[in-house]
Amino acid sequence: MSVNTDLFYSHLPVNRIPLSDLLTEDHLFYPIPADWHVIITDIKGSTSAVQSGQHQTVNLVATGSIVAVLNISFKANTSIPFFFGGDGATFIVPPAVRESAMRALQLYKQHTIDNFNLALRVGCIPVKDIYAAGHELKVTKFNSSGNFSIPIILGDGLSYAEGLIKGPGYLHTDQAQQTEDLDLTGMQCRWDRIKPPENKQEVVTLIVRAARNINQAAAYRDVILYIDEIYGSPEKRQPISVARLRLKASFTRLGLEIRARFGKMKLLSLFQTWFSTSLGYLYFQTKPGKTYLSRLVEMSDTLVIDGKINTVISGTEAQRLQLEAALNTLEQAGRIRFGFYVSRESIMSCYVRDMKDEHIHFVDGAEGGYTKAAGILKLKLASG
Q1: What CA–CA distance (Å, rounded) separates 56 from 367?
Q2: How do the domains of the chain map onto residue ranges?
């Protein structure tokens, strides 16, 4: 008798213990059901796009792919693990979501090439194929702050899937169902570049991958302990603060959002968005508005663990040099490889289903922090 696994992730318990402790509690991680699928979106040539000044567009396109899939998941009344990567996203989806998600992403892919001349790669790998190839994929839920919970993945299954989808032999389907509507409701891109909180000088975008044949959980525990020791608690290293938030209501910036959402420029929607953003200055002076801003900081997605650590933190130059020395020690011991990028600001794009409880804010270092950190890590991995 077949078992319906669609609510597997929805029913997982949330862990509220320190992350460094959680990583060593193997019994709190659960294998992804074999009938689920890994979906990956990725902008081809993102490095050159970032270097040409399109880093905000790259982030927006990546965010749009997340919004498209989360809206489908919401309609299916299930929750899924997903991961923002700066120039793309990763999802692990149940059978009930896979087909609709892939159709939506193929349509979004066409929007992206038409409006931004950016080629969005979209691929899907069955989890059972990942297992059959000898790879591991385990998940748990971690409460990072307040009511905001994130998935934590251990195992190399997502890296294996990414290698297949980005590889030359993968067959990408390009048939979008043009008769279907693409639902990007809630997608927003209205905040200006965000300076670090007071007494912080820089934003560090860091990616860490455990070396092969190394205990991944133990290596990541040591990395997290170093970050905690040097930068303090997640709240103390948070790059987003209410005092530094500034709305950016320029038609150019808002036009990016409209084109990504609708696949073309809609002047009426542009003026409506500009007007509502302008009113935002007044709304954020009210009690509900101030509550939203404080929750925005709480629900900023600054830590992703998808088989590797991806995080955006703020601090001082001295702290960063201390962390770099600690990570170099781990790297020289053959336990990890890492790449990071230092910027003076962070950027944020948002998914706002409602202003009270359902909103997520995706954070990257300015100038394409994740993309540039990934480039450094890739060079290290290529050199062995």
Answers
A1: 8
A2: 14-170+182-382
Highest mean pLDDT among 171-175, 192-196, 237-241, 277-281: 237-241
Write out pLDDT tens, residues 50-63: 899 888 889 989 99
Is residue 62 a contact partner of residue 84, using CB atoms and an 8 Å limit?
Answer: yes
Asked if 192 and 249 count as a contact pair (C-beta separation under 8 A), the reply is no
Closest CA to 199 of 226, 236, 224, 245: 236
Q: How far apart are CA 273 and CA 57, in angstroms?
A: 18
Integer CA distances (angstroms), 235 to 114, 144, 218, 231, 244, in order: 40, 10, 23, 10, 15
Question: Residue 142: in which H helix or E strand, if any?
Answer: strand 138-145
pLDDT for 296-308, tens place per residue? Answer: 888 888 999 999 9
User: 89 exposed, middle or buried (CB, 10 Å; 0-12, 13-18, 19+)?
Assistant: buried
Query: Are the C-beta atoms of 94 and 80 separated by less than 8 Å?
Result: yes
CB 107 within 8 A of CB 176: yes
Query: Mapping DSSP to helix (H, G, I), strand (E, B) and coil, where does residue 250 land?
Result: coil
Per-residue HEC secondary structure of 92-129 comes to EECHHHHHHHHHHHHHHHHHHHHHHCCEEEEEEEEHHH
In angstroms, rounded to a whole number, what is the distance separating the alpha carbons of residues 219 and 221? Answer: 5
**pLDDT tens readout for residues 70-125:** 999 999 999 999 999 999 999 999 999 999 999 999 999 988 998 889 999 999 99
User: What does DSSP say about strands 300-301 and 346-352: parallel, antiparallel, or unpaired?
Assistant: unpaired
Best CA proximity match to 160, nearest among 232, 212, 224? 212
Q: What is the pTM of this model?
A: 0.89
For residue 284, the 8-state DSSP code is T
The tokens describing 354, both together, are: 């409602």
What is the arithmetic mean of pLDDT over 264-273?
Answer: 51
Angstrom distance (rounded) from CA 337 to CA 101: 33
Residues 84 and 303: beta-carbon distance below 8 Å: no
Calpha distance 115→259 (Å, rounded): 7
Contact predicate 141/116, CB 8 Å: no
Q: Please tell me the predicted confidence (pLDDT) of residue 274.
A: 43
Residue 63 tokens, joined: 């965010």
Distance of alpha carbon 377 from alpha carbon 196, whole angstroms: 24
